[in-house]
Write a structure and sequence with these properties.
Helix content: 40-55%
Number of domains: 3
Order of helices and strands: HHHHHHEEHHEEEEEEHEH
Mean pLDDT: 80
Strand content: 5-15%
Number of strands: 9
Largest sheet: 5 strands, mixed
Radius of gyration: 27 Å
């Protein structure tokens, strides 16, 4: 009969951990830690905090920025996953200095970064150019469809949403009318448990739909015709990736070919890519000129993109701007 080594789970092993030694030179975590501490000016975050004289001390923005970027590099995008990494992953423990920010703290920090992250990104571009990491041979443009936290069933033009609201009003009327009939006859009756649960849901949906209809006009597509809005996330759009239609955004980035680093990235609520070429190129030009890296780097390099960005208008624009694409 086979013999096996004994597995004893009822034992304790004490492991001393030097967190500073977990960040090994040559790794992404080490480079990230060094850049955040030594090279990137994070003073832009100081204005966010008003606890100089009172209130609890806050988690350092540098630590939260290191933690979230390291988690993203490991494919962990959700706030609860990031919080879990602070308890289970020794590299994230080291970057967070063995603290565990609550998931709501992480979410609030990430969701309110729009102004500060632009400044930090520009400082990063300046450092990359100083290190010779932004080549001037070729820029590549491409995008990926990303799902939004919104349901495609709540999408439609203004006319569609008005019809949807009328349908929901009719559904509520259908629920309430038997109850009103019983009241008129002084008969015993009620909506029933299922109907009682449905009523607040329908009323909330009607309020949500009518709120958007009252405050928003139809979104217009590139051809000037109305396109679908969304009740939950009106900046998103229906998009056709290879796996089927999703409600989301088109994440587009431009990378330099020498050391593939992103020089500009933006999310668009637009499934068709041919209308995104011009805003992306203007988005590259502005920060590079502000950093005085180049008077116009786009005229010094070649640009490549797939056929989704091909159109007569884009060809005319590239010719006018002197961009070799």
């Amino acid at each position: 009969m086979a013999r096996y080594k004994h597995d004893d789970y009822a034992q304790t092993k004490l492991l001393p951990v030097n967190f500073d030694r977990q960040l090994l030179p040559g790794t992404f975590a080490y480079t990230l830690n060094y850049l955040m501490d030594e090279k990137i000016d994070l003073s832009v975050f100081a204005a966010r905090y008003k606890n100089d004289e009172g209130g609890a001390p806050a988690h350092a923005p540098a630590m939260l920025r290191k933690l979230t970027l390291c988690a993203y590099s490991k494919g962990s995008m959700h706030r609860r996953q990031i919080e879990q990494l602070c308890r289970e992953n020794v590299v994230c423990m080291a970057l967070s200095a063995d603290t565990t920010p609550h998931c709501t703290t992480i979410a609030a920090f990430v969701s309110s970064l729009s102004a500060e992250i632009t400044t930090i990104f520009r400082h990063s571009l300046l450092g990359c150019d100083a290190a010779g990491l932004i080549g001037r041979e070729m820029f590549a443009l491409d995008g990926v469809k990303l799902p939004a936290n919104a349901s495609k069933e709540w999408s439609g033009t203004k006319t569609d949403l008005q019809q949807q609201a009328q349908t929901m009003h009719a559904a509520v009327e259908h629920l309430v009318s038997p109850h009103c009939a019983n009241d008129a006859r002084d008969a015993q009756g009620s909506l029933g448990k299922a109907a009682e649960r449905q009523r607040p849901t329908w009323h909330a949906a009607i309020a949500k739909s009518e709120g958007l209809l009252a405050t928003h006009a139809d979104k217009l597509g590139m051809a000037g015709t109305p396109k679908q809005s969304n009740l939950t996330d009106n900046e998103s759009a229906k998009m056709p990736p290879s796996t089927g239609v999703l409600q989301g955004d088109n994440g587009v980035a431009i990378a330099a070919s020498k050391h593939p680093g992103i020089v500009h990235a933006e999310a668009f609520g637009e499934g068709q890519e041919h209308g995104l070429l011009q805003p992306m190129l203007e988005g590259v030009r502005e920060p590079l000129q502000q950093l005085t890296l180049s008077e116009d780097m786009l005229t010094e390099t070649k640009l490549t993109a797939d056929a989704g960005y091909a159109s007569e208008a884009n060809a005319a624009y590239l010719c006018e701007q002197g961009i070799d694409a």
